[in-house]
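1st attempt posting a full record on here, be nice pls
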Amino acid sequence: MSHPRDHLVCWLRDAHAMERQSEQMLRAQATRLERDPKLAGALGEHLEQTLAQRELLEECLRRLDAEPSALKDAAGRLDAGAQSLATLAVADEPVKAAIACLAFEQMEVATYTVLFAAAHQAGDIQCQRMFDRLLHEEQAMADWLRGSLPGLVQAYLARDAAADRGVTAQSMAPGAAQPPRRPADSSTPPPDGERPRPHG
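the predicted structure (as tokens):
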């Protein structure tokens, strides 16, 4: 039967790979969300927090005479790349990015909840306190994202509607390209009032 410490080390490595994935995902999204500076700024700040969290996880692994898993870290980076591509070059990228980030934050909350319980079972009070801190940080980010979604959606829909109005106004402007008119059909008789009178 495995000791709780063994499971703690395994889940710590998973968390480290998760934060590697978060780092790459946040870095990619924060640089692309120019139209939403508030969201981009929040993701940039959380990126700095994520880097600090990764260092704390590495410190905890060293205390347990373990090290991160290179294989799991690489898999996490690949997943982050796929997630970034999924929201790349789409009109509603800010909304899709916020949804992806919120879903990822919820996974991090669950991960640190598990680690907190595992550290308690293993009797590692120092790691338990660290996981409690990280849990609160991820929960705070998840709460911020959830609270920001309605305003983010409203701002995107307003921009989208303004863009549609701009296209319509441009198409109606003088000199704008118009669809070709259908040529008159010579076989169609003219209205009664315009019929030619017979000569006689």
